[in-house]
Amino acid sequence: MDIGGTYLPLFPSAVNRKQSTFVFTEMFQASKTHLDELQLKRLEEMCIVIDKQDQIIGAETKKNCHLMENIEKGLLHRGFSVILFNTKNQLLVQQRADAKYTFPGHFTDSCSSHPLYMPDELEEKDALGVRRAALRRLQAELGIPQEQISIKDIIFMNRIYHKSPSDGIWGDHEIGYLLLVRKDLMLNPDTREVRSYRYMSQEDVQELLDRGARGEEKITPWFRTIVEGFLLSWWPSLEDVSPFIEPDKIHGL
Predict the structure, then answer these.
(1) How far apart are CA 205 and CA 76, in angstroms?
(2) In terms of Cα–Cα distance, which of 198, 196, 207 is closest to 96?
(3) Active site residue 44
(4) pLDDT tens, 5-27?
(5) Cα 37 to Cα 22: distance, rounded to the nearest angstrom
(6) Half-sphere exposure of 208 toward its Cβ, with a 13 Å CA cutoff?
(7) Which of 60, 69, 141, 174 is catalytic?
């Protein structure tokens, strides 16, 4: 593995691409008709491919990492979810833009994305690479001014494995780093990424999940896991979350 500019493509192989292209081309073309130029461009970003111990084994495009064809073959990548609280202990919840290729229009965590296969975001000490990626996306997606947030504000809590089909073509299969921020920040979200957003109390979030369970709202599966598995117990202690930090733990495996 050379992080200086080359990468190791893993799924599918050159041979498999030739064999499967004719099967998926028509389906892929149909599935991407709702995507805008930004989302199509981001499909070519290079994600970090890992094994189930979160060890780096290569890289692949964001597109290939999220095709169910490849996920079913075991392609696993590194991601993150940011849970952003204000000092009133309200959680920022966003609704994903309709132009998203996975889970469009779903309610989810404050900001979720992927570190890229580049030196700054591959650094593993103290999860620095992932935290740098989160800082980049918080500024780009939520429009948080650079002077208001730094990497020191981003707390690495734990890691969560999940495999989540979105439809017959797209899905998500990742080990996601759960990151927490508690700070009052200015927001100016990119409407190409975020359809709507609001700060919610614990009661509001629970009501949202209940509506999702009744089929009245669409909720990303990882957001439900984060809330029910972690946030409900963390919420009363947001001023000091240090007892809940588990940097060596991968939940869900």
Answers:
(1) 29
(2) 196
(3) no
(4) 334 444 444 334 433 433 333 43
(5) 24
(6) 25
(7) 174
